[in-house]
Write a structure and sequence with these properties.
Oligomer: single chain
Shape: rod-shaped
Number of domains: 3
Largest sheet: 5 strands, mixed
Strand order of the largest sheet: 6-8-9-11-10
Number of strands: 11
CATH topology of the largest domain: Heat Shock Protein 90
CATH architecture of the largest domain: 2-Layer Sandwich
Helix content: 40-55%
Distance between the termini: 69 Å
Radius of gyration: 53 Å
Strand content: 15-25%
Number of helices: 11
CATH superfamily of the largest domain: Histidine kinase-like ATPase, C-terminal domain
Amino acid sequence: MSTVALVSVGGFLSYSIGAGLFETRQQQILAEAERAVVEVQNTFTASTSTDTATLQGLMNTVVPNLESRTTNSSRTVALLRSPGQSNGQYLQSPVSLGLDAGIVPEALREAVRSNNSKLLYQSVSLKVGAEAHPGLIVGSHIEIPVAGAYELYLVYDLGSAQQTLDFVQSTLVFGGAIMILLIGAVSFYVTGRIVSPVRKAAEVSAQLAAGDLEPRLPASGEDVIAALGKSFNTMADSMQTKISELSKLSQMQQEFVSDVSHELRTPLTTIKLSAELLQSRRDELSPSALRNLDKLTGQISRFEDLLADLLEISRFDAKSVVGDFEVEDLNGVVGMALAHIQPLADSKGSSLEIDIPNGPVEAEFDPRRIERVLRNLLSNAIEHGEGKPIRVEVGQSPTAVAVTVTDYGVGMSQAQVARVFDRFWRADPARKRTTGGTGLGLAISLEDTHLHDGWLQVWAKPNEGASFRLTLPRRKGMVFTQSPLPLPPKKAKKRGDA
């Protein structure tokens, strides 16, 4: 930008100086030419001679006199007879030595002949040796007694003015080049002092964002950059301290959950054995005791599920979960999940509608974990399906396989959809549950899906139902950009409106 500004200013100055120099020299030349024309005309007017030789001699003296009476530039002269004259004495037209009378433009000659009283001029290019110089031709009408009409042309060589202009321009170019180099050096220095610390700060920030909390900015001196570096390092130290504390708390939380889950297994096992003992003696119990025993058995089962889910969550948090991947037919895993959930569907009055492709749908995944995901999705659909049909659809593409589980029950709002995978979150805490859920099923399902580098997505609308879509890559590590099945399913809204 600075270079462009300097070039623009230099160009403007060069143009202004050139224009001013030319205008000044032009005014000077016109003043000189006017005096010369008046002098020549007076010379011929004052002559009383009618002799051709005398007039020719007088005319021949005019040219040398005009050549010598000039300043700052070279001047040559041509005194040319106007064409088309039949009267008067014919005198030979004198021309300065080395001047070609043909250099005078015909347009200028016509203008001079038609304007007897005006001083006219035109810029021309003069050939001086092998060089071309700028020039100015000034012409005027001269009336010579006895001889008739003549045209006086004063040819000025402006080469000296051009040399002056060339010197000024070269000086401007040289000075501009020096100024550009100086600005470049100053810019480089300023960049080194300001931009480099900012660039270093960006690099350190990227390292901090990547998890490396050790890098710091060099902060020496008392300027603004040093103060910025010190503030940045203070912020990084505080961030490192807080992250370390949070990491420690998270680790303690994980250890606490894991320890509690393990420690509760022993008393839970004792309680379960006692309940089984009571179950074996059901005939000896009163109806009231039987009801309490059944409640106790259900709560024990739910407690077992909760402990198992907590242990699984703690393993995910500790990054210690490893999948047992193998190539399996997804249709078979879907069939096992449906067979497991069928009694629950029957108890709720929900029918299971299945849409699967003909032939195997093979993919590489952990069948135990994927079956668990499908069971969680199916149980949630049945729980919230209000006895309406549950639709299960399987699809495949060259890069991915997918399963959708759709119900047409109570559905969810967008705010509820945003939290559906949160731990211990329920869409309606006041709603009576019959499946003994722990609030961790969908959270674990999402972790299982991430273990496979897959997608677990949901669509829902209030009173229209909900649809969960599980998408997995065909092979471990394979990248996919689109699921084989749409979300929401094409039939979801239609069935929901029915």
